[in-house]
Amino acid sequence: MFVAVEPVDMRLGFERLGGLVRERMQREPRSRALFVFFGKRRQTVKVLSWDGTGTVLWYKRLDRGLFDIPKPTTAGEASVLVSEAAFEAIFAGLSTQVVH
Questions:
Q1: pLDDT of residue 97
Q2: Exposed (0-12), middle (13-18) or buried (19+): which is 21, by Cβ within 10 Å?
């Protein structure tokens, strides 16, 4: 699962997010990986994936609180690779600081 470091416009759909995956993350959107994007206020998240037959886009808005976005380990990175456990914590709106 790849988490975008920079926030994106939550109005973006399948094609534009797929373009960001290619351009910024240097990945292939149809690789079956999950690509995670956050809105500027960190209350919304979109997850782009490909299931083998088509592109899937999940959208979530937290009722309270903010999403905890992981920090890149290297300056200039466009995305951060996270574990399944870290992704589940992020998507649930929990802090990833406690997930190893």
A1: 52
A2: buried
50 phi and psi, to 5 degrees?
Answer: -125, 130
Give, as one character, the DSSP assignment of residue 36.
E
Instruction: Tell if the pTM clears 0.70, that is, is over it.
Output: yes
3-class SS at 21? helix
Dist CA 75 CA 30 (whole Å): 26
Residues of the chain with pLDDT under 70: 95-100
How many Å separate Cα 40 from the centre of its chain?
A: 13
How far, in Å, CA of 67 to CA of 85, rounded?
15
Cβ pair 46, 10 in contact under 8 A: yes
Report the DSSP pairing between strands 35-38 and 2-4.
parallel
User: What local confidence, expressed as pLDDT, does residue 100 receive?
Assistant: 37
